[in-house]
Amino acid sequence: MMMGAALRRLVLTTHVATSVGLLGAVASFLALALTGLFAQRMPTIEAVYIAMDIIARLVIVPLAFAALLIGVVQSWYTPWGLFRHYWVIAKLVLTLLVIIILLMQLGSIAAMAQAAADRTIDADGSFQRRLSLAVHAGAGLIVLLVSAVLSIYKPRGVTRYGRARG
Amino acid sequence: MAIKQNPEPMPRWVKLFIAILAIAVTVVVLLALFGGHGPWQHTSDGGSIELSAGRLSSTSSG
């Protein structure tokens, strides 16, 4: 079953908006993570981790799931298919990886935010965790950029399933 | 006699993608296992960061 042109455009617009929004949100998260890593003043560090928790839970997680869901629906109901082209599968794998790593990091982000709210952050003692958040955010941004490149360039390659389906 | 079709080979970029992904996943798993960055060491119930190690040891022991 294929979508009509109008619906297809609407779904594509939503998919681009959520994907690009996710990219921007992760970039903001990385900026905050780097600020939290290198800032000298404790009020700045505390504010950063509280903001990071809010961005992660209320912006990044919903956008990530929306991008995944809309992407799957879009590919399923268009000639691209979900498993017909390697670049679509690659995007799916990358998005799933980003979501898994993100969900694994949520506990750490929440712990930092709680420590910031309680004013119990030890700048030296928590350095490894703060570094970890910045590294994860940087890696996530790179993965999302790769995903965006795949969307634009659509490198060739049809899967065996795609060839069988014609 | 049926003609055996040659399947289209997997593009080079897909092989490269799989290789990079495999290396990245291996590094992440090794770091999680031996570098002390596993998700089981993250706490979500607040408290100070220094307490995390204490919680880890208490949950690990039972």
Question: Can you walk through the features of this model?
Answer:
The complex is a heterodimer of chains A (166) and B (62). Chain A has helices at 5-38, 42-76, 86-117, 127-153, 160-165. Chain A has 166 residues and is mainly alpha-helical. The longest helix of chain A is centred in the middle third of the chain and has 35 residues, at 42-76. The two termini of chain A are 15 Å apart. By secondary structure, chain B is mainly α. Helix content of chain B is 53%, strand content 0%. Chain B has 2 helices and no strands. Chain B is rod-shaped, with a radius of gyration of 22 Å. Chain B starts with 11 loop residues before the first helix and ends with a helix. At the A-B interface, helix 3 and helix 4 of A face helix 1 of B.
Rg of chain A, Å, rounded? 19 Å
Biggest β-sheet of chain B: count, sense, barrel? none
Main beta sheet strand tally, sense and closure of chain A:
none
Which percent range fits the helix content of chain B? 40-55%
Roughly what is the average pLDDT of chain A, rounded to an integer? 93
Largest interface: A-B, 30 and 22 residues
Order of helices and strands of chain B: HH
Low-confidence stretches of chain B: 42-62
Write down how many β-strands of chain B occur, each being a DSSP E stretch of 2 or more residues.
0
Radius of gyration of chain B: 22 Å
Q: Provide the succession of SSEs of chain A.
A: HHHHH
* Low-confidence parts of chain A: none
Record keyword descriptors for this entry.
heterodimer; A: mainly alpha; elongated; B: 62 residues; mainly alpha; 53% helix; disordered C terminus
Give the helix/strand layout.
The complex is a heterodimer of chains A (166) and B (62).
Chain A: H1 5-38, H2 42-76, H3 86-117, H4 127-153, H5 160-165
Chain B: H1 12-34, H2 51-60
Concise summary:
The complex is a heterodimer of chains A (166) and B (62). Chain A has 166 residues and is mainly alpha-helical.
